[in-house]
Amino acid sequence: xxxxxxxxxxxxxxxxxxxxxxxxxHPTIVPGLSVHRHSSSAKPNCAAYKPSLAIIVQGAKxxxxxxxxxxxGASDYLLTSIDLPVLSQxxxxxxxxxxLSMNFQIDTAKIPGLLDRVGDQTAxxxxxxxxxxxxxxxxxxxxxxxxxxxxxxxxxxxPVLLPLIEQEILYRLLMGPHGARLRQMTTAESQPHQIGxxxxxxxxxxxRPLRIDxxxxxxxxxxxxxxxxxxxxTAMSPLQYQxxxxxxxxxxxxxxxxxxxxxxxHQVGYDSQSQFSREYARHFxxxxxxxxxxxxxxxxxxxxxxxxxxxxx
Length: 313
What we know:
This protein has twelve helices and ten strands. The protein has helices at about 10-20, 110-120, 140-150, 160-175, 180-185, 190-205, 210-220, 225-235, 240-255, 260-265, 275-285, 290-305, and strands at about 25, 35-40, 45-50, 50-60, 60-65, 70-75, 75-80, 85-90, 100-105, 130-135.
């Protein structure tokens, strides 16, 4: 197909397919940018989403945040403005038309400087209180994302063009329907910024017993305000958020460090083995060792071309 006939999305498909020649998650030479390819749908799997822009160019995906389901596919983008533990599932993929996506992490430290130049152009109130949203991909954002992907095949241009493209992507997101959420997450003393501080503390101290009044005091909020705004942004309570962090870390410890269920549960803060097993099974659908056995078998499947593990992009 000639360049005159290709759409931007078709060019994005071609670039990602070349860079991600086999199924899996592929970091790239562009800092913060990864590309993802999967040739089959799979069971839901846990993931930890960071502030990022995720664009699917082919296929579709479901992401469960708390009790809220986000579904997005080609021509959509997923904007995550705060660290969130989720369940995700690639729902549309085949060997003929594999799932292809890109994920670009947002450096939130760069937003305040850009806001100084943007001024009051961004909306004051976000379209949704959530720290995760699905939106239609605009032509302007798609064009910037395509130019970012092109740098993968033009590395000599990266030192000059990457900062400009990254700034444009941040600008397009800030000017989009949920740009106000990004603004608020980086504005000191705003309630979303305070929730960001609470999330950071929970991520660092997830294994400790959680006292909500202590957490509220740490981020200079009342208990009722913390509960209200935390749930509005993350779709879960602080205790539910902590539980998901614990369970995901326990799963990682069993998979990567080969701890048994008892040791993993204790290390992430569970005093009761039966409570750990019960909550693990409720979250992942199976008791710990049965789930870990399935995931390990899926790693073998991954090597033989039949993956079950899921991408984060």
